[in-house]
Amino acid sequence: MDIFRLLSRSSGLQHKRPKPPVSAAAAPPSKRRKTKASTGTTTALSALSLTESPPEIDFFAASAVSTGKAISIPGSSLSRRRKRSANGAADQDRSYSSSSDEDSDGDGGEQKSLLDIPPPRLPTPSEAHKLAKEHKLKLTLMNPPPPPSPSPSDQKKRKKSSKKPKPEPEPEPAKKSKLVDTPPPTLLTSFTQLRTAPYSLSKRLYRNLLSQGYDTPTPVQMASIPLLLLGHEYTPSSSSSNEPQSTTRIRAEKSINLLTCAQTGSGKTIAYLLPLLDWILWKRGQLGKDGKPKAGAKAIIVAPTRELVGQIYNEGLKLAIGTGVRVVVLKKAVVGKMKKEKKLSEEAEGEEETDDGGVDLPKEGESTPHPTGTGSKVKSDIVVTTPTMLVHAMKNGILDLTTIHRLILDEADILLESNEKGGGFGEETLSAWQILKSASSDIRVSMWSATISSSIEALAATMITPTNPTTSPPPLIRLLTGLKNTSLPHITHTLTYASTEPGKLLALRTLLTTSFPPPALIFLQTVPRATALYREIKYDLPPGRVALLHAQLPDRERERVMESFRKGEVWALVTTDLLSRGVDWRGVKLVVNYDVPGSAAGYIHRAGRTGRGGREGGEVVTFWTSGDAKVVRPIAEVVAQAERERERLVDGKKDEGEPKEGSARWLLDFLPKVKKEEKKRLKKFGVESRNARRIVVGKGMEKVKMKGKEEANREGTHGISTVSGWEKQRVDRLRGAREASKRKKREEEERNGSEGDGEEFMGFD
Ligand SMILES: Nc1ncnc2c1ncn2[C@@H]1O[C@H](COP(=O)(O)OP(=O)(O)OP(=O)(O)O)[C@@H](O)[C@H]1O
Fold first, then answer.
1. Is residue 186 a contact partner of residue 154, using CB atoms and an 8 Å limit?
2. Is any ligand 1 atom within 6 A of the Cβ of residue 611?
3. Of the candidates 449, 480, 511, which is a domain's last residue?
4. Residue 262 lies in a domain
5. Domains in the chain: how many in total?
6. Which among 212, 541, 671, 694 is most buried, taking Cβ atoms within 10 Å?
7. 219 lines ligand 1 (CB under 6 A)
8. What pLDDT, in 10s, does the model give residues 132-163?
């Protein structure tokens, strides 16, 4: 078997995944359940059709499992469903209305047995508390209602008691407050819990999840899935450890806004896709005024790059198989086609055409009407797109914004970051949010990233405002899993001093030809530098094993390279920060920062392309030169933090030997401290000397001017060449001397020539 096939997220292979980083205490006790299969009866597991490696289903307690009691939730469709199944009746519940959901795959008999899985026990509050502590799961309410203003009677009393009129006290600013229920009210400790109350996930969705080989939720899934499925008023009515708990399931009205910061590769995609699909299935059961379910897009997922959009789309498709939920990628071509269709249908309806054909982006503080055109609109349930394309689609009125109630921002920090700060999409994302908020009465946003700064948190809190000014805004909950803004402790981080640019090339060559563990990603600061490095190392590996990917390549080429890397045909992919976020190739073993990333967050995301899903053995090598000292410091801090965390984990596992002394900490002793302004500049431009096409014409960022194209091209190698600086200087000097001597000779000849001419020309007699 080609080991590189294991890379592929979309390879279709059904591998048993390594356990996610959930510790022994987090996972249910590993009692492999004796299934009926051993006694020859059809089992829940066989019903899942996971023939090769069925997921191990664990349960918390045999008592809860054996009771298999129906869970009664008065008045809810879920209680009806559980009662019916407990009575052995076929599950006819249509609260999930999709025609293709549930039983559409024609294995009705086996489907029934799915419901035979007795409900696994939910963790008791004390167990949940222990787990939350262990995984450092923290919930914070980011937008608590302001304290109530004093009543008129209180004010009177105060006036009487004080002789001198005191100035009215300033209302206290709303502070972030920990939820009463911090840590989370409940945790999902096994995906099997999803099949029963309080979650009662769609059967089909549950099967799709298990068929991907997921059995134990990762910490972020453990905490966020209950929050998103159950809403903020989830209230366990029983804390008894032996009985399944009945709950109030609130799906729409009490749903929350969520801001999640969880480490790279921790499974955030499933954490938002699963509740989203479940909600869409439920939503489809809600009939509109005309007695039919409302058609049109219901959710938008935004991601910063086309590559990530494609990946989310694929994940969505896999989870949505057989549910009838439709997912679409909004591309330029799709928007263009729909725009045309819209125009045609509007003409046919005899409508007057407007210039822009859609919505105007709102100015700050302005609300915007949504497009009312009756032309062609996106009909898929979930739209996945980039911020720029989303705004483009909105402008062209091809989305019915009134049906959209969910917005998901993947890599939220970069999506919300101001465009000014370099690489951000704040303008587009916030415009889209304003439009959606003004068009849809009930919209919730969830934001996800491995790095969230406090300024982004503050911005997120300001986004959530009440629809009605007299009510309090829907809650925005921040979920933190593990330490905030940290890199993975289970991968190796190496900071290698390479002295000069040619030193870096030499170091990379040594790496490629000695201890190279493919597949690898090699990151550079700019497209010209990535292109120059690609040309340099193209022949250092067997033909076709090195590839180049950046944003200036045509879409087709980008897709082709991505596919080749997924298949394992490419061993070393030279790229820019285009691939630093979100993209998931499970088998990436090595990440090389040929150019130091401009910020700690940049490092965390690049490094996170390895060690995905808790995989050990990944390596990150960062080359730095004497000119990089300032940009290296924040990165050394991140690495030192990861080293400390690794030591803590190793300390916990005594039999794994002594922790190793990290390399980053001693570096911090002599690296210069970096001022805030400098950090900002580095984040925006990276190391200036590497930006071949820029010249600084004065102090400050605004005065950076682009060089002419010709001038940039003349630089050719963009500083990446095997020839050392000393050698270049020597060659330059030689060339200069040669040219000077030629010039001298020419001048002499000219002089001699003119003198000679004077002598030789004898004139006409
Ligand atoms: N419960 C699980 N058990 C095992 N593997 C999982 C589980 N959930 C997700 N994974 C796998 O973990 C990998 C990383 O998932 P994902 O891409 O969602 O990470 P992420 O948190 O979004 O990372 P990033 O911050 O880099 O975007 C994927 O290969 C995914 O299939």
1. no
2. no
3. 480
4. yes
5. 2
6. 671
7. no
8. 888 999 888 888 777 666 666 666 666 666 55
